[in-house]
Amino acid sequence: MMLNESISKATSTPKCRAFYKLFSKSIGFLLFFFSTCALSATENQILTIQNAAQNYILDNIESPEGGNLEADANAIDSRIFATDCPAPLQTSSSSLSSSASSITVLVECPEDNWRIYVPVKLTKTGPQVMLVNSVNKGQLLNRQDVTIEMVDLLRFRRQGFSNVESVLGARAKKNLRPGEVLEGNDICVVCRNETVIIKAGKPGMTISTKGVALSDGAQGEQIRVKNSKSNRIIEARVTGIGEVRVQF
Asked: Residue 168 maps to which CATH number?
């Protein structure tokens, strides 16, 4: 009662009432500021969360052969609640597609009852065969026509070639320009109506015969081939320049 009377007397004049209102607002702001700061994550805590998300990606997504995989966590709002977790942070994701350019990682501390979803950007670079010279349709590729360059594989999503040897001697199916990444449908490793060697067998035993390719084929593709001896049409997989293989 005495406190209320004291406040009433102290704010009896317009000047005193204005001061009291300003003072009350200042106290409220300071209480809000300090309570917010007490709950906000520190710079080190945010860095720890980002590193946990990035390491999860690097540990669970395979790097391209002969290439590199980079993971870059998005910026995190410093106003989030986080602590120095007493146990190692737990990480997980509902999707781990190797072809995705971004993956969201859940980082959590069950001991202190907090969690945060962190988007992580992926960059995958790998070797791809690139043209050095212009190549005309029907021309055979030689070593002087191609080179190896590191390419962003998530932007270049078409089927290419990761080593020069797999395209040497292949025939261009169209005019090709220097500076282009060589794609699977740009060339035929085995070309239609050409004579091919048909290999068949299993480990320790291989037989060979000749045949005629009934369609174009890139490395690893399955095509129809006519056996020149028996005239039978078979399905075979392209394994090299002028070569196909049938598995028993």
From this structure: 3.90.1210.10
